[in-house]
Specification:
This protein is mainly β. It has helices spanning about 5-15, 35-45, and strands at about 55-65, 65-75, 80-85, 90-95, 100-105, 110-115, 125, 135-140, 145-150, 155-160, 165-170, 175-180, 185-190, 195-200, 210, 220-225, 230-235, 240-245, 250-255, 260-265, 270-275, 280-285, 295, 305-310. Strands 3-2-1-24 form a four-stranded antiparallel beta sheet, with no helix packed on it. The two termini are about 20 Å apart.
Length: about 300
C-alpha cells in the first residue's frame, strides 16, 4: 500500500474512534500482472513474504455452519491449527497494508475488515453500502482495494481516501472472484449468474465479455504470473479451465478438480496451483504443468479464501 493510502486509513480510523446469502467460495488473492516480466515484478511488489523458498504455509478463512475462524496450514501438516476467531464470517482473503495485514469481506455483516496476520487488531474499513461483499484483491502497484458485491452486482475499487469507492462495473448477475492486472490496466472477474468471464479497465469503462459459453457457475479466478493466462474454477462443473490471453482460447486444465472448486492461487516459486473446495472442505494443489492432485489438509468447516505465507 502506498504511504498516501496508509496515511488516509490512519486518519479515517482515528475519526471513526472520536462499522443471508449463498455458501459458496469465490476468489483469489493473486494480484500478479499479465506478461511474464511484469508479472514477476508485480508479484514481488504485492507479496508480504519472500517470493522464493520452500513450501509455503497457508492462512485460510474457514467459515461455515457456525464456525468463523482464521486457520494456518503448515507444510506437511495433516490438519489446520486455529489462529483466531473471525467476526462476522469472512469471505475471501488478500494481503493488505503492504503485507503487514490481511483483508477480507464479510458477506453476512456487509463490511470489509482487516487484521494483523495473527487475527488481532480487527478493523472495519470506512466503507458502507455493501450488500453481500465477497471477493477481495489488492492492486500490486497502487495498493488500492478491489472487491465484488453480488448483492449490488458490482465490481468496486477504493483508493483509501474519504471519497469512497468507485464502481468499475455494474449490472452484473452475481459476480464472484476477481483478479487485478494493474500493469496492463485490467480487473477481471467471473460472473456466476451469467456463466461468464469478464473484464473492465481498472480506471472504469466498458465491460468486455471474454467468455460467454462453456462455463456453468464460475467462482474462482487467478492470473498466472508466469504466462499471463487466467485459471477459472467452475464450481458446478467441478473443473478448472485455463483461458489464454489475448487469443481467447479456453481449455481444460483439470476436469475433475473436486465437488466445488473455488478460491485459486498460483504460486510461481513452487510452480503450483492451490485451490479450496468448500463442499469437500479441503485445500488441494497441483503442478501448473499438470500431474496428480494433492490434498494439503482436511478438517476444515468451509474454506472461503486464503493467502500463502513464507
Amino acid at each position: 500500500m502506498s504511504r498516501r493510502i496508509a496515511a488516509a486509513l490512519t486518519v479515517l480510523f482515528a475519526l471513526a474512534a472520536c462499522s443471508a446469502g449463498e455458501e459458496d467460495g469465490v476468489a483469489t488473492g493473486d494480484t500478479a500482472t499479465g506478461d511474464t516480466a511484469a508479472g514477476e515484478e508485480a508479484a514481488g511488489e504485492s507479496a508480504a513474504q519472500p517470493t522464493t523458498g520452500g513450501d509455503p504455509s497457508l492462512l485460510v478463512v474457514d467459515a461455515a455452519g457456525g464456525v468463523s475462524r482464521l486457520v494456518r496450514i503448515e507444510p506437511g501438516a495433516s490438519a489446520p491449527s486455529e489462529v483466531a476467531s473471525l467476526p462476522d464470517g469472512g469471505r475471501g482473503l488478500a494481503w493488505w497494508a503492504g503485507g503487514e495485514r490481511i483483508v477480507w469481506a464479510s458477506r453476512d455483516a456487509d463490511v470489509i475488515q482487516s487484521s494483523a496476520l495473527d487475527g488481532t487488531g480487527v478493523e472495519t474499513l470506512p466503507l458502507t453500502g455493501h450488500d453481500s461483499a465477497y471477493a477481495v484483491a489488492v492492486g500490486a502497484r497502487s495498493g488500492d482495494l478491489y472487491w465484488s458485491d453480488y448483492g449490488r452486482d458490482e465490481i468496486l475499487r477504493w483508493n483509501g481516501t474519504s471519497d469512497g469507492p468507485t464502481v468499475l462495473a455494474s449490472g452484473l448477475v452475481s459476480p464472484r472472484a476477481i483478479a487485478v492486472d494493474e500493469e496492463d490496466g485490467w480487473v477481471y472477474w467471473v460472473d456466476r449468474g451469467a456463466g461468464r468471464l469478464e473484464r473492465a479497465p481498472v480506471t472504469g469503462g466498458d465491460t468486455e465479455v471474454l467468455i460467454s459459453e462453456g462455463l456453468a457457475a464460475p467462482y474462482g479466478l487467478a492470473l498466472d504470473p508466469v504466462d499471463g493466462s487466467l485459471l477459472v474454477a467452475d464450481a458446478e462443473l467441478g473443473s478448472i479451465f485455463r483461458y489464454h490471453l489475448p487469443v481467447g482460447e479456453l481449455e481444460s486444465w483439470l476436469p475433475e478438480a473436486g465437488t466445488h472448486p473455488s478460491f485459486v492461487w498460483i504460486d510461481a516459486p513452487t510452480d503450483r496451483v492451490y485451490w479450496t473446495d468448500n463442499r469437500d472442505n479441503v485445500v488441494r494443489w497441483r503442478a501448473r504443468s499438470g500431474g496428480p492432485v494433492q490434498v494439503i489438509a482436511e478438517g476444515l468447516a468451509g474454506p472461503r479464501g486464503f493467502v500463502l505465507v513464507r
